[in-house]
Design goal:
The complex is a heterodimer of chains A (270) and B (256). Chain A has 270 residues and is mainly alpha-helical. Chain A is 82% helix and 0% strand. Classes of the chains: A mainly alpha (270), B alpha/beta (256).
Chain lengths: 270, 256
């Protein structure tokens, strides 16, 4: 059984589910909402452009995409233990994990593109198409984060074995990624002498996929302009190769957990 | 005949912590032979089949399918193996046609070949249904048709007649006969003793993780001390089963 056959099988299941249209609609509403809400504080009802919408949406992506991907991946990973018929086919069990990851990454990436794409039409009509590339980069960052989140979720699901336990672990891991790592960063800044925290912070950025995606997003949005001193500090910290390092980090968070999940599933009883 | 042809278990055991689900077990099913596993729930029938299918790993001993060690050459062994698990083993939202395409790909066959097997099994009008939309019996027939597809060396069936009507049960019997004719070793677990007596060349009676008796109906009747008439070979099977399962110490020495 080829990887392609497994991906086609899982893709057929993923696209028939309600998750994809539900999240496409959610992302579309969120994008339009953010585009409208950005200028409302000034008493203006108007659609803000792609550059500002992208920066505003980044925070939403950093919270919702990993949560969604971790939960879905964990449920899919735990379900692998119920696939005894598939596991008896002449193919490595890891291929089932890979198929699920690939199919759900494609399905949810399609939901992201459809949702953000629909909002892009609204933004382009009312605010013009300037800085649309930043918006496309935001979708790219979201897809990288989605891919890493699904992979980590699948690994946790396979390791936890039961759906309930897997989902509990997924929520805990999301909390660490989305909030816990930032608390550690704040603690480091408070404890370490000025300048001593640089490498520790850089390491934290690379070992946490949510922070990697955040830094990558701020980087591609010219954060030193839009995000003020924080963005400038990030650019200074990561230097010219920062984006590549961050993409590699997200790639690592995709490949390594996927391989670990495959190996684990191969070695344990169903 | 090549060594370990058909299905073979040598000293295979399975423990979960301190609990032994399967005592060291020896069993051989020759190519073209049908052996049935019978016994009460928890006797170790499914555990035996699941070890052979590679779903779980034996704690000790070796198992072979068509000459291949299932632990050392799992993929080669599984290429020769058709397996129908007791539970569905596939997500309920799966569409039959998609599953057929996947099985065909795994077996090196074309998708139309798999679809053709389903059409032959009278499931041509259910190809675009999901397994969740089908009755338990229809689902079982789909899974049986796909389990037997292109698996030439051995066939493992765990409660294949469960939730089937008379017609479906006859399909199972025919699938087993067809596999035997094709030279496959067939090992199946069942609580339907009349099916067992009708189909199996030998019957292995399992109790508490061990085979307490194994042989033809005639041989088991002799061991159990039950009169057996060649003209109605199925008649005493219920009685033989009860006697063997309730246990007599000397039966534990019977080898498979």
């Amino acid at each position: 059984m080829t990887r392609g056959a497994m991906v086609r099988f899982e893709w057929a299941a993923a696209r028939r589910g309600r998750v994809v249209p539900f999240f496409a609609a959610g992302f579309a509403l969120a994008s339009v909402g953010v585009a409208l809400a950005g200028l409302s504080a000034g008493g203006i009802i108007a659609v803000q452009g792609f550059a500002r919408t992208s920066v505003s949406l980044l925070q939403l992506v950093l919270w919702t995409v990993p949560l969604l991907a971790l939960l879905l991946g964990a449920a899919q990973g735990a379900e692998c233990y119920e696939l005894e018929f598939l596991a008896a086919l002449p193919a490595p069990r890891g291929r089932v994990v890979f198929g699920r990851w690939a199919a759900w990454t494609l399905a949810l990436a399609a939901a992201l593109v459809a949702g953000f794409g629909a909002a892009a039409v609204v933004i382009a009509i009312f605010a013009g198409a300037a800085d649309v590339l930043q918006y496309l980069a935001l979708i790219g960052v979201a897809v990288l984060l989605l891919s890493a989140g699904l992979s980590v979720g699948l690994w946790m699901g396979v390791a936890a074995r039961t759906r309930t336990r897997a989902i509990g672990v997924a929520v805990a891991v999301w909390f660490v990624f989305a909030i816990g790592a930032d608390l550690v960063a704040i603690a480091l800044l408070a404890v370490l002498p000025p300048g001593g925290a640089t490498w520790n912070l850089a390491t934290l950025l690379l070992v946490n996929p949510v922070d990697s995606a955040r830094a990558l997003g701020l980087g591609v949005f010219s954060a030193d302009v839009l995000a003020g001193p924080t963005g400038a500090a990030l650019r200074h910290l990561l230097g010219g190769w920062g984006a590549i390092l961050l993409i590699l980090s997200l790639g690592g968070w995709t490949i390594i957990p996927l391989r670990l999940a495959g190996r684990r599933l191969e070695s344990v009883d169903l | 005949m090549s060594p370990h042809a058909g299905i073979e278990l040598q000293g295979v055991s399975k423990s979960y912590g301190a609990r032994a689900a399967l005592q060291p077990l020896d069993l051989r099913v020759a190519p073209g032979e049908v052996v049935a596993l019978v016994g009460p729930n928890g006797a170790g029938k499914s555990t035996t089949l699941r070890i052979l299918a590679g779903a779980i790993h034996a704690t000790a001993g070796s198992a072979w399918v068509a000459g291949h060690d299932v632990a050392l050459e799992p993929l080669t062994a599984r290429r020769q193996l058709g397996y129908l698990p007791q539970k569905l083993g596939v997500p309920l939202p799966t569409v039959v046609r998609d599953l057929a395409a996947l099985v065909a790909s795994a077996r090196g066959l074309s998708a139309p070949a798999a679809v053709s097997a389903l059409v032959t099994a009278g499931l041509g009008d259910r190809l675009d249904a999901t397994l969740g939309e089908m009755s338990g019996g229809q689902r079982q027939r789909v899974m049986l048709a796909l389990a037997t597809l292109g698996a030439a060396g051995a066939l493992l069936l765990d409660e294949p007649s469960i939730s089937l009507d008379t017609e479906g049960a006859e399909e199972v019997r025919e699938a087993i006969r067809a596999a035997r004719r094709a030279g496959a070793a067939v090992l199946f677990a069942s609580h339907h003793l009349s099916d067992v007596a009708r189909l199996a060349d030998r019957i292995a009676v399992m109790v508490e993780g061990r085979i307490v008796a194994c042989g033809s109906v005639e041989e088991l009747a002799r061991v159990a001390g039950v009169a057996w008439d060649r003209r109605s070979p199925e008649a005493p099977i219920e009685r033989i089963y009860r006697i063997l399962v309730q246990g007599r110490p000397e039966l534990h020495r019977v080898t498979a």
